[in-house]
Structure to design on (247 residues):
């Protein structure tokens, strides 16, 4: 099992989530975060904005779904045809165990 | 060393905290998140709740069809729900005990929406105050 942490533009949230849901990956946890990337934030007229609002998506998926989920997020979170700075990042973490409380069993 | 991510109902925050303390966990981080789980296809699970919500709906100002759609999407998991995300760092041997505690505290008879628990491996932890690393940094 894997845990996907995707940091995307807040305005792309709905698009990414509905694309994932259509592909059958419905479960997700969403939180609002602020951060900066390697461009060191945005500089507008001498003022540096390095706390740029982004949306963080957490998803637990089986190993074989990695390609599909990463592909969907990559495709839908991209702005323009070639993408631009600030479109976000996707991190894939190993996950050892998962439990569903309502069912009381291990597994996704 | 393991990191436990537990997503629980907002109302169960207190119960989860109590369960963590009795399981011997010293510290944790909790933040507010939005989330959705698997789509609920079993009608029996949402029907009792739906009937109750439909009775509450004001039918003389609202379009009944719209109301029904809103309630259905609310109950079948299409929309996002507020939840509390707990991040807990524990020793390997404490993982089963902590999970057991969270499971017992959060179990309800509603059938869906009780949350999930993830266990992730952690490579290292450092306590900033003392500079301790590894297992010593947890508690």
């Amino acid at each position: 099992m894997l845990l996907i942490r995707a940091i995307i533009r807040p305005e792309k949230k709905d698009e990414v989530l509905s694309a994932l849901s259509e592909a059958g990956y419905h479960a997700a946890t969403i939180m609002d975060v602020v951060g900066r990337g390697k461009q060191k934030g945005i500089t507008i007229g001498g003022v540096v904005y390095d706390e740029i609002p982004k949306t963080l998506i957490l998803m637990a998926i089986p190993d074989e779904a990695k390609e599909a989920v990463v592909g969907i997020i990559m495709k839908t979170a991209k702005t323009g045809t070639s993408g631009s700075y600030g479109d976000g990042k996707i991190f894939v973490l190993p996950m050892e165990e998962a439990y569903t409380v309502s069912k009381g069993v291990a597994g996704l | 060393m393991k990191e436990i991510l537990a997503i629980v109902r907002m109302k169960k925050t207190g119960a989860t905290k109590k369960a963590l303390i009795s399981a011997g966990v010293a510290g944790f981080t909790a933040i507010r998140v939005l989330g959705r789980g698997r789509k609920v296809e079993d009608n029996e699970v949402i029907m009792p709740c739906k009937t109750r919500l439909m009775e509450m709906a004001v039918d003389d100002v609202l379009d009944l069809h719209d109301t029904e759609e809103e309630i259905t999407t609310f109950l079948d998991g299409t929309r996002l729900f507020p939840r509390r995300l707990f991040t807990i760092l524990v020793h390997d041997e404490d993982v089963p005990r902590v999970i057991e505690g969270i499971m017992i505290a959060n179990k309800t008879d509603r059938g869906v929406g009780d949350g999930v628990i993830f266990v992730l491996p952690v490579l290292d932890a450092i306590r900033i105050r003392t500079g301790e690393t590894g297992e010593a940094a947890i508690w």
Q: What stands out?
A: Strands of chain B lie at 2-9, 29-36, 81-90, 116-121. Chain B touches chain A through 37 residues (CB under 8 Å). Chain B has a mean pLDDT of 87.
